[in-house]
Amino acid sequence: MKIGIVLYPTFGGSGVVATELGKSLANLGHEIHFISYNQPVRLDALNDRLRYHEVSVSDYPLFDYTPYELVLTSKLIEVAKYEQLDILHVHYAIPHASAAYMAKKILDEEGVQIPYITTLHGTDITLVGRDKSFEPVITFAINQSDAVTAVSESLRQDTFKHFDIKNDIEVIPNFVDMNLYDSIECGGLRQRYAPLNEVVISHVSNFRKVKRVEDVVNVFFNIKDKMPAKLLLVGDGPERSNIEKMCRERGDCGCIVFLGKLKNPRSVLKISDLFLLTSEHESFGLSALEAMACGVPVISTNTGGLPEVNKNGVSGFTSGIGDIEEMTEHALHILSNEEVHNQFKRNAYAIAKSFDIDEIVPQYLSLYQEVQKSYRIKVKSPL
Ligand code: GMT
Fold it and tell me: pTM of the full predicted structure?
């Protein structure tokens, strides 16, 4: 199949999932065309089955806001037509789903038929998409999609709750390629960050408000009161300065390392003893799954799709938003006893395995095939 994948090229989970999906489909013999405004961060090698088309937006003095969606639509039309794509798969509804709808309609006028699938990732529904300034367009573009998927049951329900959706939404969870996690080499990384054998706690996010990174730091300081510990913070974003300031004010920032954006946080996760994800909302929590794939137990909130990934009392614990005390208790319960810690590590790894790429990618493939089949029937006999 020839598949166009539209995605955000950044470190965010939706872009990571879309890239890994494309890479895996290319390995299975499909031809993948990534379409975005930058080369996706996790797309390291291009070849004849893995191609990248850049949406380049040029400035014009008239525009205070350059209309990216129109440029993207034109690119979709060009790629679909000249690369003879069979299907478009857009990740993150805004503005990808509406651009795909427009491209589909324009192509239809030219006698080219192409269905599009929309995958909802989270903030496109729970945060940004709900805003009145987007809502009607999002609702329309989702309803017009030839298939819609959500990365968790919780996100599926949120979508029905907040939008007037007439379509079915299939849950296809995010995934990890366990082979990549099993073969990580960490060299002397643990020795570098925890030379005195401190416990290593980590957190990965885009440092937006919704992540509540201040809670990560507070839980960490509570743990550190009881045992020598180091906190490795991966990522960057609007809240980072505030968090750095908070650490300075605690006067004990030598034990916290800000690693910034890492193309691949796997080796940091692999040397961790515990992963913290204290978000106010999280539709899935890909970083938690990535930690679990490294055999790292997770202390997280119980919001959104997190309990579908981090099983309470098994791979780690889930607590209410902002419940620093309970999160600390749970963390200390895991870290204070080697046998308990090892059991949680094994459980985390085993649960991550159920989200292995080999389990999930076939679900996307059969959806593509289903959509193609029913689309051909629909196009042949329009009502
Ligand atoms: O977490 C973010 O703000 C980034 C965002 C994205 O679009 O990449 O993440 C969302 O999609 C990820 C991949 O499906 C999910 O793992 C995250 O839980 C989800 N983020 C939120 O719901 C806040």
Answer: 0.93
Ligand 1 atom nearest the C-alpha of 289 is 16
For 54-90, write each residue's pLDDT tens digit.
999 988 888 888 899 999 999 999 999 999 999 999 9
94 phi, psi to nearest 5 deg: -100, 125
Cα separation, 6 vs 123, whole angstroms: 17
Residue nearest to atom 23 of ligand 1 (CA): 282
Q: What is the 3-state secondary structure (H, E, C) of the chain?
A: CEEEEECCCCCCHHHHHHHHHHHHHHHCCCEEEEEECCCCCCCCCCECCEEEEECCCCCCCCCCCCCHHHHHHHHHHHHHHHCCCCEEEEECCCCHHHHHHHHHHHHHHCCCCCCEEEEECCHHHHCCCCCCCCHHHHHHHHHHCCEEEECCHHHHHHHHHHCCCCCCCEECCCCECHHHHHCCCCCCHHHHHCCCCCEEEEEECCCCHHHCHHHHHHHHHHHHHHCCEEEEEECCCCCHHHHHHHHHHHCCHHHEEEEECCCCCHHHHHCCCEEEECCCCCCCCHHHHHHHHCCCCEEEECCCCHHHHCCECCCEEEECCCCHHHHHHHHHHHHCCHHHHHHHHHHHHHHHHCCEHHHHHHHHHHHHHHHHHHHHHHHHCCC
Of the candidates 18, 20, 55, 21, the residue with the CA atom closest to the CA atom of residue 35 = 55
Mode of pairing for the β-strands spanning 50-54 and 87-91: unpaired
Closest residue (by CA) to atom 2 of ligand 1?
Answer: 12
Q: Which atom of ligand 1 is nearest to the CA of 205?
A: 1
For the segment 161-185, the average pLDDT, to the nearest whole number, is 93
Q: How many residues does the chain have?
A: 383
Q: Tokens 């968790």 label which residue?
A: 152
